[in-house]
Design a protein that fits this description.
Blueprint (H helix, E strand, L loop, with lengths): L6 H15 L10 E6 L9 H16 L3 E6 L7 H9 L6 E5 L22 H9 L1 H11 L3 E8 L4 E5 L14 E4 L3 H9 L3 E4 L5 H7 L4 E4 L1 H6 L8 E8 L2 E7 H5 L3 H35 L3 E4 L3 H17 L3 H9 L2
Parallel strand pairs: 1-2, 1-3, 6-7, 6-8, 9-11
Antiparallel strand pairs: 3-10, 4-10, 5-8, 5-9
Helix pairs in contact: 1-2, 1-10, 2-10, 6-11, 11-12
């Protein structure tokens, strides 16, 4: 596995790469604004903001016809609304985020969000850079989206609770755990014994404060950057999901770009993806260490029983979504 460079060197490399490739006239007046939406905070501690920042830097330095503006924190609307607008060619030009909401537009995409599917980051990245990713990109085009590149979220998703520690599988029984409003996420949490509670992520902090939820599930980097350690005490390392991320643009708007403009955007996403993937395991480990330092109790948990139940969920979901061929390819590439 390749060594993961530090964030400072990667960020500097991104800027230097952009500057080195800049051509005369790049500072001329921009003619088309590329609006990039994502759900995370406008902080370089956020994996999506870092990727968006690298993308913006590269495009702004390498195109004299395009400029990029980032809209973090769902400033253009929640994810579903943003994607619906993109289908119509309005609102955001592109969106950067996880794939759970997108699979409601393209059902086969849900196969890459199945529980206990990915062996590690490398397994997921190779599948998405290969035939699996190509087939899913074709499916998304039929729904009005152009996949420009695949990235990753920083860290496996774990169960985070406020008061009750989860140290054994049976400890999850009956706990109200927030998850994404996606059938596969709901089924997976229920199969693990929890009472899966779909909820918009923007409501989670207050729901934890008021006791509406017993917990939620997410990656450690999000727990840290969202300051959820202020309203929770425990993390059980269930590692039940490893979520890919996708940089997708409105197909309508993509078709309006010149070949040169498309190439600039593609190269910008490629650079952002390289940095994003290199940082993923580093930031996951750093986030867990910082959360420990902030007083959170982090517990390993035997996931063997969960993984056995997950096989049935994987098979049923893939069959229902006409994605059994993709699931087979993913399993064979482990």
């Amino acid at each position: 596995m390749r060594r993961s460079p530090s964030f400072k060197s990667l960020a500097l490399g991104a800027v230097l790469s952009a500057l080195a490739l800049a051509h005369p006239g790049v500072h001329a007046q921009k003619k088309r604004e590329i609006k990039v939406s994502h759900a995370q905070a406008a902080s370089l501690e956020s994996e999506l903001q870092i990727a968006a920042w690298i993308f913006r830097t590269y495009v702004n330095e390498n195109s004299d016809t395009l400029s990029v503006r980032i809209f973090p924190n769902n400033a253009l609307g929640d994810e579903r609304s943003v994607y619906e607008g993109m289908q119509l060619g309005g609102g955001a030009t592109c969106a950067l985020g996880g794939t759970a909401i997108l699979n409601t537009f393209s059902p086969r995409l849900g196969v890459i969000d199945l529980p206990f599917l990915w062996k590690d980051y490398e397994h997921m990245n190779q599948a998405l850079d290969g035939a699996v990713g190509q087939q899913l990109a074709q499916d998304l085009e039929r729904s009005g989206f152009k996949v420009v590149g695949w990235l990753t979220n920083w860290g496996f998703r774990n169960v985070v609770t406020a008061n009750k520690p989860v140290t054994r599988p049976e400890d999850l029984k009956g706990l109200k755990i927030r998850t994404i409003q996606s059938p596969v996420y709901i089924d997976a949490l229920n199969a693990m014994g929890a009472n899966a509670t779909p909820m918009a992520f923007g409501e989670v902090y207050s729901a934890m404060q008021t006791g509406v939820l017993d917990g939620f599930e997410h990656g450690p980097a999000v727990v840290l950057t969202g300051k959820y350690h202020e309203v929770t005490k425990h993390i059980a390392l269930t590692r039940h999901f490893l979520g890919p991320a996708v940089f997708a643009c409105s197909l309508n708007e993509w078709k309006q770009l010149s070949d040169q403009e498309r190439e600039v955007l593609t190269q910008a996403v490629r650079l952002a993806s390289d940095v994003n993937r290199s940082l993923a395991p580093v930031r996951e480990a750093q986030a867990l260490e910082k959360l420990r330092g902030l007083g959170m109790q982090i517990s390993e948990i035997d996931t063997g029983a969960f993984e056995e139940r997950a096989v049935q969920i994987q098979d049923k979901f893939a069959a229902d979504r006409n994605a059994a061929d993709l699931l087979k390819q993913i399993r064979e590439s482990r």
